[in-house]
Design a protein that fits this description.
four-stranded antiparallel sheet; 19% strand; alpha+beta
């Protein structure tokens, strides 16, 4: 960390979030403004941060009995608004108004030279992209829903998003970035697909990411020449899955080169999960992605993983603008295989590890479904940073095992006991567990 720099502590992140949400639009026109928009937004965020749907209700009870509550001491919110009031007020707030918080977190890490901890292939940050559905209903819907008409006459309404995240091949963590929502029909255009949403995300964030040094990693749909050329416009690198069936011309070129012995190869034996695995690599430099004139030239690489008996355990192929050679092929493949981390360490965590991304916290009529999902993803990013820079938090996360257990304990403690600060809460937990206190 740069000398004199200050890590992104819980208190600093909450303070910055308050400054971001203070700009939220307020639809109220009368004198009934007891709750500020920042208090309303921070109250919603507190539910996602503590992973406790009952957090606000507990704080209302504590406040009635003691005149003070943890929503005030931890999140700086004076009084506890009702759930319905929160939903009503946040429905008019576009999710994009939360995005400056993600920008701030990256800027903080960059200024502290802390982004270097996340660098991998070519000394780049590896940013994975993947789409997912996070809401579906046959009844509740809004103008931003995607509409699916089934052959049996049933109509489903859903929301989807693109979930970008910074990952590192050897790390079991992901730093979620601002999502991009995959739009439904708006009356003028058809519902867009994941790739179109990815282009919009690059258009919004490419200029910001370019100076940081970034490699975009995605599955086969991203191995599209228009998308890859868009990345080039922003000087972003890429490693994408490239399946033979969807890239027939490229596959034919590789087969022709293989027949003449012009495909380089090497293999190494490594240990994965304590077991020996043979990694067999093949690669070709500067091969055309398509059969069109002036086609984009890419480096192609494949990997086959086998066990001691020669049984194939894994196979995949990738394209990249990083130069593939005997010295770099393993790093390129590691980056390509890290694509699954956006599913396991990001999307799967958000859906199954306490964040309940697919739960209907509130749908609304305008922006609520997207804005609440963004605050939920932001809570995940804050947790990631706390695990890196808050020694007490990191210790307790290790000691308590499952994420859901840790936050279950947070929810229970804050439902019954008042804590003057975040560090007081963590210190209490460490004391009760009789652990050595590493300090805040």
């Amino acid at each position: 960390m740069r000398q004199g720099g200050e890590a992104p502590t819980f208190e600093r992140m909450i303070s910055q979030l308050r400054s971001v949400v203070e700009a939220f639009p307020d639809k109220r026109t009368g004198a009934n403004t007891h709750f500020s928009m920042s208090d309303i937004a921070l109250s919603a965020f507190s539910v996602f941060f503590t992973q406790s749907e009952s957090f606000l209700d507990f704080q209302r009870q504590i406040g009635r009995n003691n005149g003070r509550h943890n929503l005030a001491s931890l999140f700086g919110v004076r009084d506890v608004p009702s759930d319905n009031h929160i939903r009503s007020m946040l429905d008019v707030v576009p999710a994009q108004m939360v995005y400056p918080m993600f920008d701030w977190m990256l800027c903080e890490l960059e200024q502290l030279d802390e982004l270097d901890r996340w660098r991998s292939i070519g000394n780049d940050l590896l940013v994975t992209l993947d789409g997912t559905e996070y809401y579906r209903s046959a009844k509740i819907h809004c103008p931003r829903c995607r509409v699916t008409h089934h052959t049996n006459g049933q109509v489903d309404y859903s929301h989807q998003l693109l979930s970008p995240a910074i990952v590192k091949p050897e790390w079991r963590r992901a730093l979620a970035l601002a999502p991009q929502f995959i739009r439904g029909e708006d009356g003028q255009t058809k519902a867009e697909g994941e790739l179109t949403a990815a282009k919009r995300w690059i258009g919004s964030w490419g200029e910001f990411l370019s100076p940081l040094g970034v490699t975009i990693c995605g599955d086969d749909i991203y191995a599209s020449e228009p998308f890859l050329r868009l990345l080039g416009e922003y000087e972003l690198n890429y490693v994408c899955v490239c399946k033979p069936k969807s890239h027939k011309y490229l596959s034919e070129c590789i087969n022709s080169l293989a027949a003449t012995g012009d495909v380089d190869s090497t293999s190494v034996v490594v240990r994965e999960g304590g077991k020996k695995r043979r990694m067999s690599y093949r690669w070709v430099q500067q091969v055309p992605l398509t059969g069109y004139r002036d086609a984009l030239l890419v480096d192609w690489v494949s990997v086959e993983v086998t066990d001691d008996s020669g049984k194939r355990l894994y196979y995949n192929s990738f394209i990249t603008n990083h130069r593939v050679s005997a010295e770099t092929v393993a790093a390129v493949v590691a980056a390509g295989r890290a694509r699954w981390k956006v599913e396991n360490e990001d999307i799967n965590t958000l859906k199954t590890k306490g964040y309940h991304l697919e739960h209907n916290f509130g749908h609304g009529k305008q922006h609520l479904c997207e804005t609440l999902a963004t605050l939920n993803i932001l809570a995940f990013s804050v947790h990631t940073l706390l695990n890196l820079y808050d020694a007490r938090y990191a210790l307790l996360r290790r000691e308590r095992g499952r994420r859901t257990r840790f936050f279950g304990e947070i929810g229970t403690l804050t439902g019954y006991i008042y804590f003057e600060s975040w560090q007081a809460l963590l210190g209490f937990m460490i004391e009760q567990l009789q652990l050595p206190d590493p300090g805040g």
